[in-house]
Amino acid sequence: MSQAILPNYLIVGAILFGLGAIGFLSRRNLILMFLSAEMMLQGVALNLVGFGGHHKNYQGQAFVIFMLTVAACEAALALALILVLFRNRKTLDVSVWQDLREANQDPVQDESPLLLEPEMTPMHFPRLTPAGLRPDQAASPEEAATRG
Question: Which end of the chain offers a freer environment for a tag, N or C, measured as fewer CB atoms within 10 Å?
Answer without folding.
Answer: C
